[in-house]
Amino acid sequence: MFRQCTESDLPHVQKLADQLYAEDPKTPDVRTDVSRTLQEFQSKPDKGQLIVFDDGESIIGYCIIIFFWSNEYGGNVIDIDEICVTQERRRSSIATDLITWLEKRFAQDAVGYTLEVSSDNTAACNLVSKLGFTPVRNQHMIKILKRP
């Protein structure tokens, strides 16, 4: 069900990425290009992976994970940068299954996982809390230098 994205998956994944940002009222100016993300990961696989969720007939979601070393936590942390599931498959066990799959797949390499969730998305907040995620003491901030 979970596998690395291929070039032929990109139109489906781009459609889901566009949907993800269209649904989030706090990101009206975000425009993504998943083909650039896939190219980056193919040329530098130690940076991350673009994973698709496939039900055998079609792509039903995707996830972007980013690998980084954390001095604070003493090892590799996997940042779950984006998760998107098709509307028809939401509120199923797919996100839970993904986290379980990631934990098994990277059990030897990762000391933890991070993710961002909109405080307005109570369903997602409740789900990740049930999966063992807790708020961190620091607020995540960003300074954008340029847009591609």
**CATH topology value:** Aminopeptidase
What strand line-up does the widest sheet have? Answer: 1-2-3-4-5
Percentage of residues assigned to helices: 25-40%
Which descriptor suits the 3D outline?
Answer: globular
Instruction: Identify the CATH architecture.
Output: 3-Layer(aba) Sandwich
Number of strands: 5
Structural class: alpha+beta
Order of helices and strands: EHHEEEHEH
CATH top-level class: Alpha Beta
CATH superfamily: Gcn5-related N-acetyltransferase (GNAT)
CA-based gyration radius: 15 Å
N-end to C-end Cα span? 32 Å
Average pLDDT number: 90
Notable characteristics:
148 residues, alpha+beta, Aminopeptidase, 5-stranded mixed β-sheet, 4 helices, 5 strands, 30% helix, globular
Question: Your description of this structure?
Answer:
The termini are far apart. The protein has one domain: Gcn5-related N-acetyltransferase (GNAT) (Aminopeptidase), CATH 3.40.630.30. It has a five-stranded mixed sheet. β4, α3 and β5 form a beta-alpha-beta unit. It has four helices and five strands. It has 148 residues and is α+β, with helices and mostly antiparallel strands. The chain is 30% helix and 26% strand. The protein is globular.
